[in-house]
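Worked problem 6 (solution included).
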Amino acid sequence: MMNPSIARDSLAPAPGQAATAQHKKLLREALLARRKALSSQDKAHADARLVQRLLDWCAAHAITSLGVYQPIRREPDLLAAYNALVALGVHLSLPVVVGREAPLEFRAWKPGDVLEKEALGTLVPPAGTAVVQPQALLVPCVGFNERAYRLGYGGGYYDRTLAASPRPLAVGVCYGFGRVDFEGQPHDVPLDQVLTDVD
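Solution. The predicted structure is:
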């Protein structure tokens, strides 16, 4: 669960729904800059804590099939957890963008499988790989708020994916400094839980 002791970012929320989109844009820029400024040592330490918390969460929820992600833009690197989960028999998959207004497609994957670069620059399993419906999704976050709304990159892909039915469990992954204040928008879909590196 999100821990109430997580320190809030010093950025104050913008008043009024009309300013929400602009406020989220400014938050996104500030949080991405803060993530970029993390030292290699601090990032490795935070990632190791997130690896353990993800493994604990999967065990607590009896996860057998998990949609994961390949890190971009200094997102938490959880490869150690992926290797451990595969060893435990958990089936992994990676998201693929199949259309600008479409939900994500998930293709079966395990560490070491061949990947190719898609149009948006992310690495994905090649066409023809088995498409699966994971039990749960691991969702990288730039930031999040106390209601478990996610601040992402603004494309809306995960929101559309989580709006589909049946909906998988969705657990966010974010560095602790990413907990900030912002209002949700009509298209936003809350996560079930957010895992961070802080107590």
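Discussion: The longest helix spans residues 40-60.
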